[in-house]
Structure to design on (118 residues):
């Protein structure tokens, strides 16, 4: 785990401490919105969704898939990893499956072709 990931996880743990509950994707969006002092209407516009849909997400009535979570992170200027992790964790938790999500970035191996002059 990188230092950046640890710092992000530390920040997320701090949000859990403030809210007094396990952090969900909806609670993360709520905390970001509140800390930036933005109305639900303005925040929803920033995300490209309706105010009602944002309200449902913030109150954990609606799930957000991983692709949308990553998109929201980019729109808000945050790292995609934790947004995606929380969205996937919410889905597992709601199904009561008892797993914990940990994301790791894929490393793409590049093979170079060498040309030899004769």
């Amino acid at each position: 785990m990188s230092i950046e990931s640890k710092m992000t996880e530390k920040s997320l743990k701090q949000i859990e401490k403030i809210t007094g509950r396990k952090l969900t994707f909806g609670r993360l969006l709520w905390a970001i919105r509140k800390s930036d002092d933005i109305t639900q209407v303005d925040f929803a516009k920033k995300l490209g969704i309706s105010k009602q849909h944002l309200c449902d997400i913030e109150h954990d009535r609606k799930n957000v898939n991983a692709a949308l979570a990553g998109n929201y992170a980019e729109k808000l200027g945050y790292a995609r990893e934790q947004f995606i992790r929380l969205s996937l964790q919410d889905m597992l938790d709601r199904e009561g499956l008892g797993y914990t999500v940990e994301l790791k970035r894929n490393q793409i191996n590049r093979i170079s072709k060498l040309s030899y002059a004769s």
